[in-house]
Amino acid sequence: MGEPIVCDMRETRALNVVGEQLRVLAPGAKTGSYEIFHQAGPEGSGPPPHSHDWDEAFYVIAGEIAFGVGERTLTARPGMLVHLPAGTTHWFRFGPGGGEMVSVTSREGAAQFFEAIDREIAPDAPDLGKLVQVAEAHGLKVGAP
């Protein structure tokens, strides 16, 4: 039997993922499978269309967050959960005043990607070519299929 994972968000370092503040609450290296994150972003922040081979779910805590899934756009508000199966091309944007959410992935991989983005990509003037390179190195496909 494994040890319990206890994380105090106030004690984790916020990663700057192209303007979004992201905290790794439970990395796959500790859970053996899934990962959990706290994400907070200013208005207009969020990733370009992308896909990856893990499921991802977002639970909105504050603000309105627009999600694009294929050709469809939906707005999630506090108390709503958006689940995206592996391989789904998607994006999101924090709405007016910014927002906050908790996300969960079905397997390990996203935490290492976010750490690489924080380490290698300038948040205020991101090099998009380098961003795509880092994403692809971590199993993400950037852009529409």
Shape: globular
Number of domains: 1
CATH superfamily: Jelly Rolls
CATH architectural name: Sandwich
CATH class, named Mainly Beta
Q: Provide mean pLDDT, rounded.
A: 91
Number of helices: 3
Protein name: Cupin domain-containing protein
InterPro entries: Cupin_2, QDO-like, RmlC-like_jellyroll, RmlC_Cupin_sf
Give a brief outline of the structure:
The chain has 145 residues and is of the alpha+beta class. The protein contains three helices and eleven strands, in the order ββαββββββββααβ. It has a six-stranded antiparallel sheet with strand order 1-2-3-10-5-8. Strands 7-6-9 form a three-stranded antiparallel sheet, with no helix packed on it. A two-stranded antiparallel sheet has the order 4-11.
Give structural notes.
- InterPro entries: Cupin_2, QDO-like, RmlC-like_jellyroll, RmlC_Cupin_sf.
- This is Cupin domain-containing protein.
- Residues 42-93 form the Cupin type-2 domain.
- By secondary structure, the protein is of the alpha+beta class.
- The chain has a single domain (15-66, 86-140), classed as Jelly Rolls (Sandwich).
- 17% of the residues lie in helices and 37% in strands.
- It contains 3 helices and 11 strands; from the N terminus they run ββαββββββββααβ.
- The protein has a 6-stranded antiparallel beta sheet with strand order 1-2-3-10-5-8. It has a 3-stranded antiparallel beta sheet with strand order 7-6-9, with no helix packed on it. A two-stranded antiparallel ribbon has the order 4-11.
- Helix 2 packs antiparallel against helix 3.
- The radius of gyration is 14 Å and the shape is globular.
